Amino acid sequence: MNCTYSLRNLKRICYMPVKKKVVKKKPKGLKYWITKMDTYFHKYIRLRDTDRDGYGTCYTCNVPLEYKKTQAGHFINRSLKATRWDETNVKIQCARCNNWMEGRQFEFSLKLGLKLSKALLAKSLMPWKVTEDEYAILVAYWKGKMEKEESKKTW
């Protein structure tokens, strides 16, 4: 107990020491790592499929696109994590094909070819169990690839 004297009315005033709360760091959680990995992976795909000046074409409809208007379109749905971050499963698409036409999966499969389409489908059905530490490693990997691709661009 800390005590002091008040000069005003010469009374003794005592204070109880305040305990400082120790804030424990909360584990980041899988959602954090998945979101982080999506960010770096999708940016990498968009950079990979555009030229030095930031222009590319939609994989399914061949419409010319500038980098800002590209999206990372998945042949196999993103909900299946085994192929979610597979480079062969993801290409740039325009918003029309990716969002409104649900990825134009048929055209996507024709361009990929029968062999690769079947391989991706088989891979997508495999279980995907990854720990937070492994996600952290994968995030660093995709961040590195994205930064390397970004350094090649002139814009």
Strand adjacency order, main sheet: 1-2
- How much of the sequence is in beta strands? 5-15%
The DSSP helix count reads 6
Overall strand count: 6
Shape label? elongated
Order of helices and strands: EEHEEEHEHHHH
Mean pLDDT: 91
- Ranges with pLDDT <50 over ≥5 residues? none
What is the secondary structure topology, with strand pairs?
Elements: E1 2-5, E2 12-15, H1 30-48, E3 55-57, E4 64-66, E5 71-74, H2 81-84, E6 90-93, H3 95-100, H4 105-112, H5 114-124, H6 132-151
Characterise this structure.
The chain is α+β, with helices and mostly antiparallel strands. The chain has a domain at 31-125. The chain is 44% helix and 14% strand. The protein has helices at residues 30-48, 81-84, 95-100, 105-112, 114-124, 132-151, and strands at residues 2-5, 12-15, 55-57, 64-66, 71-74, 90-93. Helix 1 (30-48) packs parallel to helix 6 (132-151). The longest helix is centred in the C-terminal third of the chain and has 20 residues, at 132-151. It is elongated and about 90 Å long. The mean pLDDT is 91.
Briefly characterize the structure.
44% of the residues lie in helices and 14% in strands. It is an alpha+beta fold and 155 residues long.
Give short descriptive properties of this protein:
155 residues, alpha+beta, two-stranded antiparallel ribbon, 6 helices, 44% helix, elongated
